[in-house]
C-alpha cells in the first residue's frame, strides 16, 4: 500500500508500525533521564543531590527557548522531503552523541559535565519530538483515526520503556555489579542501546511514511498568534491539565527509585513493579483507543484517571499500616496497585495527544495558519517548565530535610518527606487535573464540524487563487 498522505483514510498496519516505532529509542533513554539520572549522578558518581536537582531544572528550562523556536521553524520549513522529517533527521545524531556521553561518562564527572550533556539530550528530544508529534497529528483528520495513530505511538513507547527497565538489569549483571539499576554497567547499556536503535528506527519511519500536503497560508505575526492561542478555550484546558500533570509526574518520577529502595524497602523487586507497570500499559492501551472513540477522548482520560488515582491513594496505607503489621504483604499490595495503574497508564498519552490534534483544527480555523508543530511545542514547552520545577523542588527539599540516597538509614522525617513527594503531592495535583479535563468541550460531533469548516475554507482559497 502507498505510504503517502492519508487524509481521512485508515492507515495500514505497516504505516502505523513505521510511524509508531520511532518512539522506542526515545523511550529507552527518556525514562532513565527521568528516574535513573538523579540516583546515578548523585549516588554512584557522587555529585550533590541538590545540585543534581538544580541542574536538571536548569537544563529543562532551556527548552523554553528551543521548543517554540523549533516548532515555528518546522511549521515554516519547505523541502522536497517535507517540513517534519528533516528536523527528525537532524535530531538523530544529537540524540546518539548526547546519550552516549550522559550514560557512558568518564570516571570523574562534574556538575558542568552533567549540565552540558543533559541539555544536549533535551535539545535532541526537541529536534525529534516536536516535529514528530505534529507529523502524527497531520497524517489524518479523522477523530477516531487519530486515536489509532497516537495509540500505536504509545504502545511502542511502553515497549521502549520495558526495554529501558530490562537493559540496566542485564547490563549490571554482565558487568558483575549485582543488578544495581544505577550502576555504571547498567547505565552504559542504555547509552549503547540508544546509539544502536536510533538510526534504525528513524530510517524506517522516514522512508515509510510520507507527509500530507500543506495548504499554503499567510503567516500571522507571533503576538497575534499567541493571543489566538490564549483565546482558544479548549487549548487553555489542555494547558492547565498539562501543567498539573507535568508537575505531578516529574515529582513522582524523580523520587520513584529512591522511594522503592528507602521507604517501601523492596530492593530488586522494585524493578519488577516498574516492568509490570509498563507491561500492563501495553495490554491496556488498545482499550483506551476504543474507549476514547466510543465515549469521547476527554471522558476516557477521566475514567482512567479516576481508577488510577483511587488505587494510588492506597500507597500511604500500604506504607504506614500494612508494612508495620504485615511486611510480607507490601510487595503483593504494591503489585496490585501497580497493575491497575499500568492498565490505565496509556489513556492520557494516547487520548491527550489525539485531543491536541483536534485543538489544532480549532486553532487553524481561528488563526488562518496551520501551525501544528508550534502548538505542540508550546504545550511541550509548558510541560517541560513544570517538569523542571517538579525536579527542582523535590530533590532540594529531600536534601534540605537530610535525606541521603547513599545512606543505609535515614530519619523518619526525611522518609515521610520522600513518601509525600512520591505519592501525596502528585495525588493532589492529578485529582485537580482530572477535574479540569472533565470539562473539555470538543466532542466527535464538534470536531467533524471543525473539519467541514476547514475544508470549506481551503476550497474558497483555491477558488480565489485560480
Largest beta sheet, briefly? none
What is the CA-CA span between the terminal residues? 32 Å
Named CATH topology: Growth Hormone, Chain: A
Oligomer: single chain
Q: Which spans have pLDDT < 50 for at least 5 consecutive residues?
A: 1-7
Give the CATH superfamily: MFS general substrate transporter like domains
Tell me the CATH architecture: Up-down Bundle
Describe the structure.
The protein is mainly α and 466 residues long. It has one domain (18-214, 221-465): Growth Hormone, Chain: A (Up-down Bundle), CATH 1.20.1250. Helices cover 79% and strands 0% of the residues. The chain has 19 helices and no strands. It has helices at residues 13-20, 23-35, 37-44, 49-61, 63-76, 85-103, 111-139, 143-174, 184-208, 222-230, 233-262, 269-295, 297-312, 315-325, 330-344, 347-367, 372-400, 412-437, 444-465. Helix 2 (23-35) crosses helix 8 (143-174), helix 4 crosses helix 7 and helix 5 packs parallel to helix 7 (111-139). It is globular. The two termini are 32 Å apart.
Give structural attributes.
single chain; 466 residues; mainly alpha; Growth Hormone, Chain: A; 79% helix; globular; disordered N terminus
Amino acid at each position: 500500500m502507498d505510504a503517502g498522505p492519508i487524509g481521512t483514510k485508515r492507515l495500514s498496519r505497516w504505516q502505523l508500525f513505521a510511524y509508531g516505532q520511532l518512539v522506542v529509542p526515545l523511550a529507552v533513554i527518556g525514562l532513565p533521564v527521568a528516574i535513573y539520572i538523579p540516583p546515578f549522578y548523585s549516588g554512584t558518581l557522587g555529585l550533590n543531590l541538590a545540585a543534581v536537582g538544580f541542574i536538571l531544572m536548569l537544563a529543562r528550562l532551556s527548552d523554553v527557548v528551543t521548543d517554540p523556536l523549533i516548532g515555528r521553524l518546522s511549521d515554516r520549513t519547505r523541502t522536497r522531503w517535507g517540513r517534519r522529517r528533516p528536523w527528525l533527521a537532524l535530531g538523530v545524531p544529537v540524540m546518539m552523541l548526547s546519550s552516549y556521553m550522559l550514560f557512558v561518562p568518564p570516571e570523574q564527572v562534574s556538575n558542568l559535565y552533567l549540565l552540558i550533556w543533559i541539555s544536549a539530550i533535551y535539545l535532541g528530544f526537541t529536534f525529534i519530538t516536536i516535529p514528530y508529534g505534529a507529523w502524527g497529528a497531520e497524517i489524518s483528520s479523522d477523530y477516531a483515526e487519530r486515536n489509532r495513530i497516537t495509540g500505536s505511538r504509545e504502545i511502542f513507547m511502553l515497549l521502549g520503556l520495558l526495554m529501558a527497565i530490562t537493559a540496566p538489569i542485564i547490563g549490571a549483571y554482565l558487568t558483575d555489579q549485582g543488578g544495581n539499576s544505577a550502576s555504571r554497567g547498567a547505565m552504559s547499556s542504555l547509552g549503547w542501546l540508544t546509539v544502536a536503535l536510533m538510526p534504525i528506527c528513524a530510517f524506517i519511519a522516514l522512508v515509510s511514511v510520507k507527509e500530507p500536503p500543506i495548504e499554503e497560508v499567510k503567516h500571522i505575526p507571533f503576538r497575534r498568534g499567541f493571543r489566538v492561542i490564549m483565546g482558544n478555550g479548549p487549548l487553555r484546558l489542555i494547558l492547565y491539565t498539562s501543567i498539573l500533570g507535568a508537575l505531578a509526574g516529574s515529582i513522582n518520577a524523580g523520587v520513584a527509585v529512591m522511594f522503592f529502595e528507602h521507604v517501601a524497602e523492596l530492593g530488586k523487586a522494585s524493578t519488577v513493579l516498574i516492568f509490570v507497570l509498563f507491561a500492563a500499559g501495553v495490554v491496556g492501551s488498545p482499550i483506551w483507543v476504543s474507549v476514547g472513540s466510543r465515549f469521547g477522548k476527554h471522558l476516557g482520560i477521566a475514567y482512567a484517571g479516576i481508577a488510577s488515582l483511587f488505587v494510588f491513594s492506597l500507597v500511604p496505607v500500604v506504607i504506614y499500616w500494612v508494612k508495620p503489621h504485615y511486611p510480607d504483604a507490601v510487595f503483593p499490595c504494591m503489585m496490585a496497585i501497580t497493575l491497575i495503574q499500568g492498565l490505565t497508564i496509556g489513556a492520557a498519552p494516547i487520548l491527550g495527544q489525539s485531543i491536541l490534534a483536534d485543538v489544532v483544527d480549532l486553532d487553524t480555523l481561528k488563526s488562518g495558519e496551520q501551525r501544528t508543530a508550534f502548538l505542540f511545542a508550546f504545550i511541550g514547552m509548558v510541560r517541560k517548565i513544570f517538569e523542571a520545577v517538579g525536579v527542582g523542588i523535590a530533590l532540594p527539599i529531600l536534601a534540605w530535610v537530610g535525606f541521603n540516597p547513599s545512606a543505609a538509614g535515614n530519619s523518619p522525617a526525611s522518609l515521610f518527606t520522600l513518601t509525600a513527594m512520591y505519592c501525596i503531592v502528585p495525588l493532589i495535583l492529578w485529582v485537580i487535573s482530572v477535574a479540569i479535563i472533565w470539562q473539555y468541550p470538543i466532542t466527535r460531533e464538534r470536531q467533524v464540524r471543525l473539519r467541514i469548516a476547514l475544508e470549506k475554507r481551503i476550497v474558497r482559497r483555491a477558488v480565489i487563487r485560480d
